[in-house]
């Protein structure tokens, strides 16, 4: 029987192998400077952080250690957002392996995060380049790109990691999962569990359904709201059969439209599905 940390690593690999996932790297689609092999290495490298989460280490510490390992490949940021979702999920699954994982224990874990967890989260940005927007003027001192230099501000204001997620929830889909008890992750896990065929194919289908359900916040950051809304419409067209998902994948790669938040949530959904008993 796999442990929660092993299921988390398997979830990262299954998310990667699912195809087509329009705009994201998979076994048939990649960018010139961000390739399948980089994501494989990132998933393997994240293992020490996932093991720390399984052992009950502080969320921030486990996350930072996962990012350190993830970054030990030449592609840069591969699974930063996915790890931010997976670490509390792994901790919750490890705390009670006898019952099905539900939102309540996960909510308890993220609400119990500390200021030091927030400091470790900021420190993780020193290990890899993460695409973020400039913060509003009143939050300049809390710009995540400041890394460890923001620790004094976090401590002065008494901001926990959950507080930091709340500050970003309106503009970041991963942060929103944290603050709303992972609703999209659980919903997509149910889709994966109810589906037929190879789990990687079910994951690709869940990814497309997530993509069609609301704008991807990473697309908003990298492009704009109009492009993110277009992505929703194009994903729905692929679900409806108006276009093929393969053609959409080719188009999004060409246009460098990378719905990374949707991929992160798909990884979290795969973990939940595996923990719910979906077999591989």
From TrEMBL:
The record's InterPro entries line, in alphabetical order, gives: CitG (IPR002736)
Protein name per UniProt: Triphosphoribosyl-dephospho-CoA synthase
One GO MF annotation is: ATP binding
Pfam families recorded for this chain? Answer: CitG
């Amino acid at each position: 029987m796999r442990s929660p940390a092993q299921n988390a690593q398997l979830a990262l690999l299954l998310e990667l192998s699912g195809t087509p996932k329009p705009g994201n790297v998979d076994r048939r689609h990649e960018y010139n400077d961000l390739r399948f092999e980089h994501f494989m290495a990132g998933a393997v490298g994240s293992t020490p952080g996932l093991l720390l989460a399984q052992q009950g280490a502080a969320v921030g510490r486990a996350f930072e250690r996962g990012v350190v390992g993830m970054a030990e490949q030449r592609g840069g940021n591969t699974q930063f957002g996915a790890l931010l979702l997976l670490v509390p999920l792994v901790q919750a699954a490890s705390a009670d392996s006898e019952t099905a994982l539900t939102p309540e224990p996960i909510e308890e874990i993220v609400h119990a995060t500390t200021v030091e967890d927030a400091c470790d989260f900021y420190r993780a940005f020193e290990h890899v380049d993460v695409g973020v927007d400039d913060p509003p003027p009143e939050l300049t001192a809390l710009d995540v790109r400041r890394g460890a230099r923001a620790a004094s501000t976090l401590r002065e204001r008494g901001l926990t990691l959950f507080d930091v997620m709340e500050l970003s929830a309106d503009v970041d889909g991963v942060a929103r999962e944290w603050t709303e008890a992972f609703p999209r992750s659980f919903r997509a896990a149910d889709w994966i569990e109810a589906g037929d065929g190879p789990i990687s194919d079910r994951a690709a289908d869940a990814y497309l359904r997530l993509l069609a359900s609301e704008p991807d916040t990473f697309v908003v950051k990298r492009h704009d709201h109009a492009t993110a809304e277009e992505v929703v419409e194009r994903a729905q067209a692929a679900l409806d059969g108006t276009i093929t998902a393969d053609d959409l994948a080719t188009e999004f790669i060409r246009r460098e439209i990378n719905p990374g938040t949707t991929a992160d949530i798909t990884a979290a959904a795969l973990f939940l599905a595996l923990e719910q008993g979906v077999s591989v």
